[in-house]
Amino acid sequence: MTRGQSLSAKQLIDGFSSYLTGGSREPVATRIFLKALVCYMVIRLILLWPVCRVMLHYHRMVLPGSLLWKIILAPSYLADQHPDAFFVVAIALAIVLLYTIPHHAANFLFCWLTVNVYYIHSQTGDGSDLMLLMLSVWCVPMVPVSLTDSGKPKIIQITLFNLGRLFCQFATIFIYLSSGVDKLASATWRSGYAFEYIRHLEGLYNPHFPALFQNHAWDLVLSWITILLELAFGVLVWQKQFRTTVLLCAAVFHLVIWWMVSLPDFSVIMIVSLLIFVNDDDYDVRAAQRRVRRDG
Amino acid sequence: MKDSLTAFTRKVGYIACLVVVLHVVLALVSLFLPRHVAMHMPLISFYRKMVVLGPYFQAFRLTSSWHLLVSTKQNGSWSSLVDHTDDDFKQYSRQPWRYDLLHSGDYENFAAWEVSVKDQKSIGEVSAQRHFRALNQYVVHELIDGPVDSVMLVYVCHTYRPDHKNYQVDTLFNYRYDPRSIPISKAID
Fold first, then answer.
1. Do B20 and A16 touch (CB under 8 A)?
2. CA neighbor of A98 nearest in space, from A83, A87, A109
């Protein structure tokens, strides 16, 4: 390796190190993302309440052996015995978290609640439960306000905040990447037949989806749009000139999934996860545009 | 003091960089390593299950759908087989704000699937299973109106065949039994 190359690698590491330690990145956008996540949880709890009440009425929950897991899953046992009591407390807690000032304790409580909702709903849950659980774990260190002014603790808080934010972004990117790679390797997806299968998935495919799209040419086009979007997302989302476009495309993609295959939970959590890629400036620009329109 | 803080910041920064690189490397390894190799490596296996989520909409998951059909016997005659989940889904498609209808059959499908994967053939064997007991309780309390003499549960898999433009139907189980003879799964009101 030449001296120039080793120097540039060091500069790269120093630059990335400064990015992680030199101040909380996009605190306003991160705060909006956290609130959106809690808001999603409140709506999810309200909607899951009648579904879980029926399930818990018949299903015997299996207790884990270890004391630690018994403590972590204590609210799930309350749900097993008194589902209504659990959902009332959980919804109340989530609403309180929605209005609480950002703090690690609040984020930890949110994560604890998510773990329990995941456990209660795990028998019949889908990808949205796991996505919410993982995002809630990475959100624990994400406190967008400074809790201390003293040197070392402040640096640790900032670094953990930036790491949590980065890991939430990676979580979304890895979902697209793993799905894109799998589809690219699948002859069913490459040939467009996947959409013909989807159209015949009873109990999932929306019978009111426009018939216009129900032919092989559209199947092929939609298949390749899906594959390319999933593969390109992780690259384009970091490019300033493509970021807004790719985020909008991904949001539309999930709205179409919601419409086509009746997966509202998954679509909404994925759209919420896209908010972690929005910058503070994006919100400022929109606020400025609103001000301009309002002021004529 | 300022120098020591700068040195600390740099140290924390390098550790954070290392954590990020390790995370990305583990995620990519778990993504591209063949499943049979990854399952023998606990950390990679954990990453595959809990960190690198997906892949979603895998081709093999799109080919089949499962249905629990229920029929009851009263006064010596059997009613026609009813797919309650499918009926609920059709109603949800017309009324998309009825989220409860979308998930109404989730538990029945879960329990039926758990019953189907066990290699137990007779009703005597299967009635010892907690999932079958729960399914029976669910069917009796949620899907059937009033007392019946017997219940028939048929669990089928519909696999779409694009070449033939039709479905291949496989029966995963078919049980006829007196619901009162099945022990309860969980004490309910």
1. yes
2. A109
Q: pTM, whole model, 2 decimals?
A: 0.92
Of B12, B29, B51, at which residue does a domain stop? B51
Q: Is residue B189 predicted with pLDDT exceeding 70?
A: no
CA dihedral A238, A241, A245, A246 (to 10 degrees): -20
**Res A2 pLDDT > 60:** no
Split into its structural domains, chain B has a count of 2
**Does B188 touch chain A if contact means CB atoms closer than 8 Å?**
yes
Domain that holds residue A59: 24-169
Q: In terms of domains, do B64 and B16 share one?
A: no
Q: What is the full DSSP assignment across A77-93? A: HHHHH-HHHHHHHHHHH
Residue A278 lies inside a defined structural domain of this protein: no
Residue pair A119/A2 in contact (Cβ under 8 Å)? The answer is: no
DSSP E strand stretches across A162-270:
none
pLDDT, mean of residues A160-185: 97
Residues B43 and B63 occupy one common structural domain: no
Do B107 and B82 lie in one domain? The reply is yes
CA angle B76, B80, B85 (to 5 degrees): 130
| pLDDT (tens digit per residue) in A200-252 | 999 899 999 888 778 899 999 999 999 999 999 999 999 999 999 999 999 99
Provide ipTM, 2 decimals.
0.91
The reply to whether A57 falls in a domain is yes
B117 touches chain A (CB under 8 A): no
Spell out which residues of chain A touch residue B107, defining contact as CB-CB under 8 Å: 54-55, 58-59, 123-124
Total beta-carbon pairs less than 8 A apart between chain A and chain B: 173
Q: CB–CB of A155 and B5 under 8 A?
A: yes
Write out the E strands in B38-149.
64-74, 77-78
State chain A's maximal CA–CA distance in angstroms: 69
- Chain A contact present for B46, CB below 8 A: no
Q: How far apart are CA B186 and CA B183, in angstroms?
A: 9
**Domain assignment of residue B8, given as a range:** 2-51
Pairwise CB contact (< 8 Å): A20 & B92: no
Asked whether the beta carbons of residue B93 and residue A262 sit closer than 8 angstroms, the reply is yes
Residues B155 and B85 in one domain: yes
**A87-120: per-residue pLDDT in tens?**
999 999 999 999 998 899 999 999 999 999 999 9
For residue B158, what are the β-bridge partners?
B65, B169
Same domain, B136 and B77: yes
